């Protein structure tokens, strides 16, 4: 009941049905609300005196009156269960005292002194309670929310019993049936934050999935994420990729965890991960938290594409199975991933696995998971595969915004997780089909306009606002992923910070992963090699560039040129040498057969170099060798496509070289 209702009822009591005038009428009006306790005390006294005349000394009636007194007190306690604790106790004590005096008076004679003092004290206690109840200055205190819900437009809603935890208060909220819904509570969050003088990210609303008008209001009064926590190593080195990846902490201190593989008994699906965040948001450190956790596990291999030339990830390269930069290397990796998915799915099916699980990585010696009908097959295991595309906007521009759609839709059933990292997860960067196929997101500060593409609508409605952070809260993030309580989706978290001091430990981790981590299985390696050949089979030589390239070039000079100093100026031409023209060939145009042979030789050279995805542009860089224009080259590439030397890719105009021979 609001203060306004209490005041109105009090005025109605004052007016009543009296119509007298003057001081007498005024006093009568003012006294009327406070008369019931006095009348009750008087009635008890009269009844006790009268009862004594009838039942004095009656033992049997004494027993009945005593039992009646106890029953009346108990009934009062039960009837007041829906009121406040103070009112319930006050009522029970008053009834117990009155009934006890009445019993004593009836049997042994009334004690008028006790009745006089007790009646006055009891009546006054109820009068004082009435006065305090209608005190206008205390009207706000009568409301459990202090008027907060009325201020924010939820006046008819009701708070439940609050659950208080360290730096977190969870209050059940029941909205007015038929008039308010959970959407109204979500829209009121900003006003609640304003009323409590807190940032908008400190207030969240978690709707009850079984009700349209009930949920929990979560208030986090202090920002416990302001303290920077440095990365000190992986959480579970040597564990399984099926164990949780610990990448930071929530605002109440709980660990920030996620899973990649599926867990069939637990009902958790495998997942792909989108890492989103603008420049300066801490996305790079967040990615390192995830990748170092992955590399510390014993049953997973990683393929990495990084157009930034491994600027952040270079210390980790020795632990990564296949690492490429932008361009043809990334195109080849995309083609390889598309090829290994059906091969891995087929292996899982033959070995009777519904989804990848840790035992898949070991030798298959369980008869229940054998590809043979007469006992264990002994097949080599198949580790989990994580395919990571860093700064994926570059790849999407080159391959099209649907480059990852097929992979994202099919890979989870093959024990493959796709990680896509980019700054702006907007509709002009990737297709809505690809975004819908990335069920997990680690979202750092983004532009406010990108919030709706980075996080699901229901998470934003619950109070998540990554656009508020921008680049002003590096490392602050939201995590939406299977296996995590949905009530935590809108809870801010923070990943750990990497510094220059972290590099040595990262190198140690990478060296451990290179020695003790999983090795590519025949199924995955064979499928990749069959599609991109040397781009995969000779991948190790591309991990690090050789700093001595220039010296090696000099050492490969012909013997007759060994004494030449490449830094020495060329001598001036001698008289008669000014107009010397070097031999330009006989000028004869290559025949079509010769031009085709030259083109096939160029394609073979691309294959030998590990460049397995090409287009007309790359071939035209060698046009002097076949003497033809772009139209001819395009036609010949189409012919090679028909002949099976080339195959199509996900992007029109780009062709994958079919390896002539590939050994994984």
Describe the structure.
There is one protein chain. The longest helix has 24 residues, at 85-108. This protein folds into four domains: 3-140; 143-219, Alpha-Beta Plaits (2-Layer Sandwich); 245-519, P-loop containing nucleotide triphosphate hydrolases (Rossmann fold); 591-664, Arc Repressor Mutant, subunit A (Orthogonal Bundle), CATH 1.10.10. A ten-stranded mixed sheet has the order 7-6-15-14-13-8-12-11-9-10. It is of the alpha/beta class and 664 residues long. The protein has 24 helices and 18 strands. A hairpin with a 6-residue loop joins strand 17 (646-648) and strand 18 (655-657).
Question: What is the compact description of this entry?
Answer:
By secondary structure, this protein is α/β, with parallel strands linked by helices.
CATH architecture of the largest domain: 3-Layer(aba) Sandwich
The major β-sheet equals:
10 strands, mixed
Shape: elongated
Q: What name goes with the CATH superfamily of the largest domain?
A: P-loop containing nucleotide triphosphate hydrolases
CATH class of the largest domain: Alpha Beta
Strand content: 5-15%
Structural class: alpha/beta
CATH fold label of the largest domain? Rossmann fold
